[in-house]
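Budget justification aside, the reviewers requested a transparent look at the raw inputs and outputs of the sequence design task funded under Objective 1. We therefore reproduce one unedited record. The lines immediately below are the structure tokens for a 214-residue chain.
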């Protein structure tokens, strides 16, 4: 069951509005156009991954939260692309819509994309991002006295992306692997960790904590 549908993000709507108002010759137009293209591309990747859930048969009650936003104890933001919760586990997803070849340098905490022309670019490391969310979620459910494992994965939305050097202990895969990964987690946690009442409690608390950015 989808609790939060994915909607066009506010920053994308804002950028569209800015581009409608700025004349093409304005010196800021190119800057905002690039921001718009990057943001739109990311949103399209998230929508592509969302479609995969329609083919996944989940063997128990479950809830999906798309584009979930909240704040932690010190009012710092957490934006999570997708949260899947069931009685067996919680799964947090970080979705990337990036072409070329991607490599992760764990020692330097660096995420590198190499384009077809050989150009290399550095991005913020999605492993650090999603592990930060996991630590926060583990603190939350511990405070709620809920004993539910928290898993995570990084999904590449473009099927042509080449996954290069990545840590073997972290789930990083193409969108086509989502279904297999879900079934793997149900095999790993093959019994209910919490009751239906506790699952409803988790859903309710997540909704209460939700705090989208203005």
């Amino acid at each position: 069951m989808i609790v939060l549908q994915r909607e066009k993000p506010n920053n994308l709507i804002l950028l569209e509005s800015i581009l409608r108002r700025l004349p093409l010759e304005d010196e800021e137009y190119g800057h905002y156009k690039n921001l718009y293209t990057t943001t739109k591309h990311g949103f399209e990747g998230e929508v592509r991954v969302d479609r995969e859930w329609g083919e996944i048969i989940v063997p128990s009650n479950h809830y999906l939260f798309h584009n979930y936003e909240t704040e932690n104890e010190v009012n710092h933001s957490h934006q999570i692309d997708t949260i899947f919760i069931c009685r067996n586990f919680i799964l947090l997803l970080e979705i990337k819509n990036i072409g070329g070849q991607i490599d992760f340098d764990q020692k330097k905490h660096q995420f590198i994309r190499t384009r077809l022309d050989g150009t290399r670019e550095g991005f913020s490391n999605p492993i650090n991002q999603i592990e930060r969310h996991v630590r926060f979620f583990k603190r939350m459910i511990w405070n709620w006295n809920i004993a539910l494992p928290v898993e995570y994965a990084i999904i590449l939305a473009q099927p042509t992306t080449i996954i290069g050097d990545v840590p073997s202990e972290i789930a990083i895969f193409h969108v086509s692997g989502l279904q297999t990964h879900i079934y793997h987690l149900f095999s790993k946690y093959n019994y209910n960790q919490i009751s239906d009442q506790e699952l409803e409690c988790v859903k309710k608390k997540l909704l209460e904590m939700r705090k989208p950015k203005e």
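The beta strands are 2-4, 62-71, 77-86, 90-96, 101-105, 110-114, 120-123, 150-156, 162-163, 172-174. The longest helix spans residues 29-52. Computational costs for records of this kind are itemized in the attached budget.
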